[in-house]
Predict the 3D structure of the following.
Amino acid sequence: RDEARKNALVQKWVELPAELKSNIKGRLVVSLGSQVTEVGKVCAQVVAKIGSIEIPRQLWQDLIQILLQNMGLAQHSDL
């Protein structure tokens, strides 16, 4: 039963318009660096979930690169 619900939710995400998904993903990535720790944590969880859907389908191929770039920015934010 839970698996059927999960599959239905995944399918709903996949069927969303590409522009909407791109907008959501962009906002999530930006929010990863939020000053509010809880916001960053929740965004990280959502990015992970979307990534688990899209990476196997070759739909978010630059996610790892984006995350690595964000890590670099975070390391140098004290400068």
Notes: Helices lie at 2-15, 18-31, 37-54, 63-75. The radius of gyration is 14 Å. The first helix runs from residue 2 to 15.
